[in-house]
Amino acid sequence: MRELTCIVCPNSCTITVDGDQITGNLCNKGRDFAISETTNPTRTITSTVVTTFDSCPALSVRTDKEIAFDKIFALIDLLKKVKVTKRVKIGDIVLANVFNSGVNVIATKNIE
Amino acid sequence: MTRIDRIAKKINRVYPHIVVSEKDGCVRLTGEMDRWDDVLSAGKMAVSGHFFGVLNDIKLAGFTQPPIKRPVLDDDRYDGAVCDVLVIGGGVIGCSIARELTRYNIKVILVEKQSDVATMQSARNDGAIHVGIDLPNKTKKLHYLARSNCMYEQLSAQLDFPFTRHGQYVLSTSWWHLPIMLALKVKAMRQKITNLQFMGRRKLAGVVPNLSKNVKFGILMDKGGCVCPYGMTIAYADNAVQNGAKILLNTIVTGMDVTDGVIIGVHTNRGIIKPRVVVNAAGVYADVIAEYAQDRFYTIHPRRGTNLILDRQSKSHIINDAGSISMYLSRKLRQRVHSKGGGILQTVDDNVLVGPDSVETPYREDHSTTIESINAVMSKHALTSPTMSNRDIINYFTGVRSATYEEDFVIEYGKKTTNIVHVAGIQSPGLSAAPAIAIDVSKMAVVILTKYRIVLANNKFNPVRKGVTNISKLSIQERDELIRINPNYGEIVCRCEGISKGEILDALHLPLCVPTLDGIKRRVRAGMGRCQGAFCQPLIMDIIKEDRGLPYDRISKKGEDRVILSVNKE
Amino acid sequence: MQQFNTDILVIGSGPAGLSAANSAISQGATVIIVERERSLGGILKQCIHDGFGLVRYGQKLTGPEYAQRDIDVLIHSSATILLSTFVTSIVKSEHGFIAEFVNRQGAGNIRANKIIFATGCRERTSKQILIQGTNPSGVMTAGTAQHYINLQGLMPTKRCVILGSGDIGLIMARRLTLEGAKVVGVYEIKATPSGLTRNVVQCLNDYGIPLYLSHTVTRVFGADRLTAVEICRVDEHMKVIPDTAEIIECDALILSVGLIPETEMHNQLSLPIDKNTSGAIVDQHFMTLMDNCYSVGNATHVNDLVDYVSQSGEIAGKHASCSCQPRFFVRPKLNGELAYFIPQVIDVSSSDKDIVCYFRSKRDIKRAVITVKDKDKIVYTKRLNNVKPTEMQRILVDISKLDNTSIVSVELEEICEN
Hints:
The complex is a heterotrimer of chains A (about 110), B (about 575) and C (about 425). With about 110 residues, chain A is an alpha+beta fold.
């Protein structure tokens, strides 16, 4: 049996996972979270990358899907090597298909 | 029985293990004690008009004075530099003396070990311009205060620093104090510094909106005033630089070469400077400098004081366009609140300042605050204005006064060394008295100098210094015109105080440039409001970077520190 | 001098100001929005973490993405947008308000019939929580650290202590860790975390950052740069327990010790302030006690979620675009465990049915009931689980039965088990 705190929304439900039994979640998203958290925990990662633009020295980015929890620091190291030289808009891919996971890192800000 | 024997007898009655001797015309105490209070009280017992001063060399058991805070800088940039007068110390005393000295055609250097002028006592006080009603007759304190008090209108206009004269109020909780106040009235009439007017509760309530019910009556002394203490020091320093003085920041005096009673070299972290005359305005370290000059005849004992700054918006319920308000406390009350002096003050920037308290300490440079002092100050002044609360506090700071055992200013030529003037023991009302002190000391230095060279007036001396215009005080039309000439005045950086980029750039372009966050804050108030720089600090860093060409990781708050530890972008 | 006339003036372009402007424009009003920074979006610009917009969009957006949705609407609308423009004074005039401002073009004034303050909030500083000691660099609010890291790519610390477990503090703990700094711990004076539980889990637990409850920083050391902090344990009354001091070496102390509504503009109009929220007193449309003057978002009370900040802007913007009828207030009396309740006054002359109310409790209550009464008659009641001071509650109350004879009281009570 494992007790989890759901991080999907601010309700922060306490979910109990006991084999196939999942209780305590207020919604289905909580159920999905509990399953993934007990099998293959994943997170959305947000960070920044360096640019060559003075108006925007740091460009905020995020993963467009969740990535495996144990890949977080490897991803951060990858992002440290990125330097954006072209103007980008929200949603533009900054780093494609990281670790062949199908996850892209996308811009969350427009460079004006 | 000789005089020194009599003093020894008096001290040894209480402290038998203390050795009392005469040294170079001074009373010297040696030995060891367990309590700082005892060291102080022995020092006070040694005071005598028949000697130059007290050398209190009693050791406090188990205590070692932390080493003097030194700048990191270490080079030979000024090795062999020659000057007529070297002023040691960039407080209000040192800076005002340097400025007065530039009235002559002589070469003046001022050294200051901190990264800005006015970082110690001269900044860490309440800025009150006193009226001297509490000062004993025939003291130097009263003499210089009386001469200085009336100079402020002209000085603040010439040097462009903020000054207000809203008066000083003293409130009383007991009709039994009335005779004391009447005596003060007589004293005021003799001193001729200020008028003294009695006020009833009704009139006082117009000044203190939430006046404590215990207050029975009060007095108003109309010549009380207030300055921005570091603003005044910076103004003096700027004007000195404008008129040719050199101010070396981050420069500490580490020793002196004295031959036949003459200082021939002054050792610093930046080389040996060779002055003709030395002015010792070194504040809490004045006696250390005197020792370097082989001319020590007084002892500084540090005395801490903490002041609190309250949010401008608390002003309406505490104090109403008045100068300073203090409470005359009966002895019993004084003991209860463990502090004397101080008051509630409306600063030149319209904040409310409360304090200071007064705590003896062996530490000369410990400016750290304590919760005990904060509580003591707040509880004491709640006696005047009960609505004041900790929620109003936006900042607080502690200063260390440089008191001598004689508790008077030392403004004298050297006793053994012939080319030094000591300006020591300058504590309250030292700020108020600075203008006249500066005039006299500059003349004393010139008297010594004339033994070496001819001293003439500096024909190019310009007494006028222009500070940074506070654009938030201009009318909307004036602002509009100014912005059209220079758009930087239209870009507001500090939102709490409404300070523009133009003003920050002006601060960076003053004669004495101090390109640190604190340097700017002290010159234009950016970062001094209720958010204490949380919003504007990154923006000011950008302006310093742009204007001075400094990279982010070289910009500091006040000198040697770094705000940013690493930069991601190359 | 620059001269503008408008129906509605919105001051501030954070989430509250953006949605107020957009909702007023969609109702046909003419709007000027004034922003003191160079770009729109307010503090959301630096909140690069995700989790915004779950209520409003059903998506987990980052701060800049959330803001951009409103910005995109605004910049394609009829609104006049004044950036890098700072309002220097605001006065009531015969027909509305006159705001004086400066920007790089000069000074000017805006005449507006109505005004909406969306000025946000600011962070409490180390001095406001009476931390003692020296005055070194390296003591900063979480928001300042966030600005350096997320907007400028600058690192203000290598090894830090975070004081306060508010959401910004927790989020910065994770952010700093990802950027390579060592976060020694997050210290919280209260016995429970101040931020959302999910943030404790995903920001601290995920990265093994310890959270110390009932601890606080009492002193800082270091003449120039911070060298260490002193940490003490506190008792249940949040008083420091003597002899529990521990010195922790660090180069930064990052503070997340509470937010205070920014009311400097409100004060220029002498608007009454609620002691409990530190923001202006408002009715259900976020109109202050002065007719045609609104206060929305965190300038009114500090919200947990940006979605509700936007919502307050929407309500006010919509209401401001209609003409203001004479109002009649009833002032709910607060009872029981309520820390605050918004609206502080209810305009019963309006034709509203359901109004949105927000409240916080004074303490943690497992099972509680909130009741709104008119004299003895129950107008609204609801049972609630796990009510905490750190989590704002939101209810919809039908006020159609209230009138100018109503005497309204609101009560939050604990329900005993069984």
